[in-house]
Specification:
Layout: E1 3-8, H1 26-37, E2 40-45, H2 53-56, E3 61-65, H3 71-83, E4 88-91, H4 93-97, H5 99-102, E5 108-110, H6 115-125, E6 137-141, E7 144-147, H7 166-170, E8 179-183, E9 186-187, H8 198-202, E10 207-208, H9 211-219, E11 226-230, H10 239-252, E12 257-262, H11 270-278, E13 281-289, H12 293-298, H13 305-317, E14 322-328, H14 335-347, E15 352-357, H15 365-372, H16 398-412, H17 415-423, H18 427-446, H19 448-455
Parallel strand pairs: 1-2, 1-3, 3-4, 4-5, 8-11, 11-12, 12-13, 13-14, 14-15
Antiparallel strand pairs: 5-6, 6-7, 9-10
Amino acid sequence: MPKIVLIEPKAPDLHIYSRFKLPRLGLLIIGALLRDRGWEVDWIFEEIRRIDFKKIVTADMVGISTITSTAPRAYLIADRVRQAGVPVLMGGPHVTFLAEEALQHADFVIRGEGEVALLSFMDAWESDRDFTRVPNLSYASNGETRHNAMGAVLEDLDRIPFPDLSPLLAAGGSILGHRTIPIQTSRGCPFDCAFCSVTGMFGKRYRFRSTQNVIEELRGYDHPKNHIFFYDDNFAANPKRMKSLLQAMLSEHFSFTWSTQVRVDIARDEELVRMMRESGCSTLYIGLESVNPASLESMKKCQTLAQMEEALRVFRRHRIPVHGMFVYGFDEDDWGTVKKTLRFAKRARLSSTQFLILTPLPGSEFYRKVLSEKRLLFRDWGLFDAHHVVFRPKRLSLSALQKAQMLSHKKFYSWTQSVKKAVRFRWLDVAIARYARGLNRVWQRRNKAFIAAIKLMGPQKQARISIDFRQKIELD
């Protein structure tokens, strides 16, 4: 039986979800496909399991999935594996857009969605090793780099097997006594925000799993100690389909709670919001992004400040907590934007929030823009985590933009704000604030060198500063 080890590298630094050890689903689905094919699959989510190189170099192949911020570590792991003579296959958003870079560390790269391409690749691997007809594949052949044409996206998502979550469940771990289960019911997004790379990865058209298919998977996790987190980029993208799914969930009388990401426009349908609450929705994660109308327009967010305010009123009325996400650093942003955003977040009585730094992710329109304008300052992908300034903003200094993010978290999660939440008996919000304050302090201590470095980079200085945040890979 051939053996493959699938690895998701750990994040290079702390972030607000550091305590929530949740993998992406790509490798878990790939693992299920390969097991059905007869391969022995070993899965390593590095956040919860240490890499033992003495064991993985005995595999026939190693697969590594990476986003941009984990790319440096992914490349270090790949180099170490290839030194032992084991072929490496890479996938994920980062290598989809920078396949040439990835091939300096890997033997093969699958771009975009991986399910159909992987099975085609395995057909070739197990037979004549002729990879010319494998869609989405990048590889080297006879000293030349080849990028095969992209195949059509998978239309029928019901064909995808349920991800094998057994490695995650075996690791245990819970938050406030609840175990989080990741599930995805759709792919694609037509909004194409300028700072987002989702459409480059999954396309601009929504594709949905059938209600019956989703319910079948949910039945396997029906327990009051489970919390379902729907990974969809916009869970309520199709209100009619959403209502069908929620009605089915209500009919099943599921005992778990759930949370997901949505846009503010769903608040226009209060029947939908009511069904979400009744079916167990405990938190909504919403990309509010900015209170600056000019910034919202430039990022192609397709929402207004008035819509945001009304939506938050609706969610409060239906007692659904909201985690709001804001982004600083658009060309239209200045220090006034920061102050208005912080005031808005406090006034909106958000349960929790993130103040992120605009990050030019490969595959996004914004990445292409700052690259063409020579505003990209760092090439250490480990810094591309929405917590570090990596490009030169137009109306804020590097240091000011970094300070805006740190100060906003400090003010939003202050003791004063915690007391106000305690008076309203919002004890979970108080606990989150305590956690966030500690995380903010630790992050600043760990990043003293970076914070000091960007202070030296004045508005006219064009020097590039290279800071090595890569983590050492140790053998067991």
